[in-house]
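During the no-cost extension, the postdoctoral fellow (Dr. R.K.) reprocessed legacy sequence entries with the updated structure-token encoder. One reprocessed record is reproduced below for audit purposes.
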Amino acid sequence: MVVALSSYGHRRAGVDFHDPNFERREYDPWTAYGQSKTANSLFAVALDSIGQRKGVRAFAVHPGGIATELIRYMSKAQIEAYKIIDEVGKPIIDPENNKKTPQQGAATTVWCATSPQLEGMGGVYCADCDIARALPTDDSTELHGVRPRAIDPVAAGRLWQLSEQLTGANLD
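Re-encoded structure tokens follow.
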């Protein structure tokens, strides 16, 4: 069982297979974050496809918005715009709006690893201790749910091939 940590940040960008490392395009941290979260989800889809014949299943998880130490790299304006912490510097916790404590965020990962509901399944995207609803398009304005780009088996295969090229590793 493998649980890959993704995020609803996948809504920000798909994987640019022609320039995954921003060598020919301007670097944007939010696009890079979105691409990395899409890639994490696609990794789970590809690993599940390859591994299931050997009993290895993989899932992607959105833990929720959690104020971690990553915010130290954000400007004060970004922190204020995203309403991550309150006026006294404490993380804002609001599960209805996807802002969770680390413990609440860990719950879906633990659920994926232990839930009988997922028995015999794999390659699915999970959030809030359930399988996330598939959204109809990548440009959906809905906050909750998984966009097609993050669960596309063709893109997952392309990412796996790109990973093999970049790392020199081959699992066949």
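The CA atoms of residues 164 and 171 lie 8 Å apart. The first helix runs from residue 29 to 51. The remaining legacy entries will be reprocessed before the final report is submitted.
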